[in-house]
Amino acid sequence: MGEYFHSVTLDRDKCRGCTNCIKRCPTEAIRVREGKARIFEERCVDCGECIRACPNHAKSAHTDRLERLADFAYTVALPAPSFFGQFRRTSTPEQVVRALLAVGFDDVYEVPAAASAISWAVRSYMRRGGYRRPLISSACPAVIRLIQVRFPSLLDHIVPIESPMELAGKLARERAMRRTGLPADRVGVFFITPCAAKVTAVKQPVGRTKSCVDGAISMSEVYGLAVKRLDTASADRPLQMATGSGIRWGRAGGESAEIGEGELLAVDGIHNVITVLTEVEKGRLADVDFLEAQACVGGCIGGPLVPENPFVARANIKAMAEAVDARPMPYTEEELLRLEADGAFSMERRIPPRPVMKLDEDMARALAKVELLEQTVASLPNLDCGSCGSPSCRALAEDIVRGLAVETDCVFKLRERVRDLAAEMKELAEKLPPSMEPEEAKSTALAQGDAPPAERMVSSP
Amino acid sequence: MLEETKDPVLTLAFDIRGRDFKASGEASGRIKRALEQVGFDWSVIRRAAVVLYEAEMNIVIHAWRGVLSAEISPSRVVIKAEDEGPGIPDIELAMKEGFSTAPAEIREMGFGAGMGLPNIKRYSDSMDIRTEVGKGTCLVAVIEAARAARGDGGPDDVQGRVGDPESP
């Protein structure tokens, strides 16, 4: 592991060196070299597009295993809102929470409950005004990292409020410590994650120095165990506390729906997010107050670690949410005001940029490289075939300028060179030593002022 | 235009066709990318992005054809939008926020809000327009890289962020 931790990893044995992933990567972070994909760490945002794109399932997300629960005296599960979308409409949120206890957790703290508190905090932040419009949601870690890498000028649009997962982690640990009297480090708080980006957000958070969450376990893994335990005997008192609007955060549009104030815009799917952020950069969306942006199509239910079909999950979310719509907010106004005053919602630090675009530390040299890059692009076939291992001709040109590739990595350029060489060889092959040349040819050559053959050989490129 | 000839200059130029909304934004996007690759401060890139886009859209919306170019040097970016088009009969009026001569069908597409020239003026350090009615318009906007520290990073000015002491 280098400077950056990444959940998205490559199984070299399974990788066949095809071009599917390099083409889908939104930050052009993957190249194929020596027959295998290679990920540029500083560019990868852990969005998981390559996991979806790989036909050989060579890309996967590194997550924490359930065995890690044994490292703690008391464990709390933090189900993401999307987790509730994995169960058929015949089950209830209460059953889902109980099933997690049956899986082996000591307690459950619903992230959708914390999400409702975050919605309150975002509304409060918006009412105070004085922010760059549009505010961009901080909930999706892949989008945050995308902004770090590709849109650093928009970093100060990100609402400086923590994600529901972080708040849930903090509140879950505090509750567990109160209930058990255990010290903080004996309580294990585990997020049930729909995606790789959240794993990275736990291991290497951007808005704080250390995550409030101890680990992230794949939703697919937990789902398999929980679905068999939905009918475990009901306990004496209800445990489930999230309301419908918190659970709806699991699908695209749910977050802005719960914020419910001001001009709202929701976009999902990382390539769509890029188009909208480009509009923000041009200054075209300054009339929007809040932008919900999620890397996965459909929102978190479309995450790469989600077992259920996202369209089915969307219907499930609707039913689950409606079942608890009548529930009161999980926190009182007083509690929320106290949390706000304590700084529980705020990010600890500004999110730094990840400047990966510049071609050279020295601007004059970088300028020369841009010029060379433009010339190189113009000389390439611009078919974006990917055979060179770079996602596009422009990306290859950039790699060439950076010294990571050479022009003949392009199969068309290579063929051109081979053809030229072959023509030259053919030409040379037809030449005869002067001693063997017929009189006629010799005189023609001299008449045309050609150099003797031996010299021509030397001067050829 | 560039008196300090020691500064290396890279010129990027793109042909723009009037009413070609499908390709609109491509030229300004390409130039913006180059500015990122050169390594300008983000506030410079942000301001240039707005100026480039508005200048490109002015050609797309109003002119028949034109060229969007940028002379890039480490100290400044000179953005030029030269077009063959109807020209601007009254520049003063065109500079007013909200004034637009864009036809209804273009406004229906969400363009022509009358903010183009005002935004270009606002986000550049100097701006010059030469125009001839019936012939065309040449707009030159300069963004000084040295003035990056002034903190005006983009198209949505704030009056200081609340609760964020580290804000520039």
Task: Please give a structural write-up.
The complex is a heterodimer of chains A (461) and B (168). Chain A is of the alpha/beta class and 461 residues long. Among the domains of chain A are: 8-61, Alpha-Beta Plaits, CATH 3.30.70; 66-129 and 160-251 and 299-341, Rossmann fold. Chain A contains 18 helices and 11 strands. In chain A, strand 8 (187-193), helix 7 (196-203) and strand 9 form a beta-alpha-beta unit. Chain A is elongated, with a radius of gyration of 29 Å. Mean pLDDT of chain A is 92; it is low at 454-461. With 168 residues, chain B is of the alpha+beta class. Chain B has one domain: 2-Layer Sandwich (Heat Shock Protein 90), CATH 3.30.565.10. Chain B contains 5 helices and 5 strands, in the order E-H-H-E-E-H-H-H-E-E. Chain B has a 5-stranded antiparallel beta sheet with strand order 1-2-3-5-4, covered by helices on one side. In chain B, a hairpin with a 3-residue loop joins strand 4 and strand 5 (136-144). In chain B, helix 1 runs antiparallel to helix 2 (42-62) and helix 2 (42-62) runs antiparallel to helix 5. Chain B is globular and about 45 Å long. The two termini of chain B are 32 Å apart. Chain A binds chain B through residues 125, 128-133, 152-153, 156, 160, 278, 281-284, 286, 346, 349-350, 353, 355, 357-361, 363-364, 366-371, 373-374, 398, and chain B through 7-10, 12, 25, 28-29, 32-34, 36-40, 42-43, 45-46, 49-50, 53, 72-74, 119, 153-156, 158-164, 166-167.
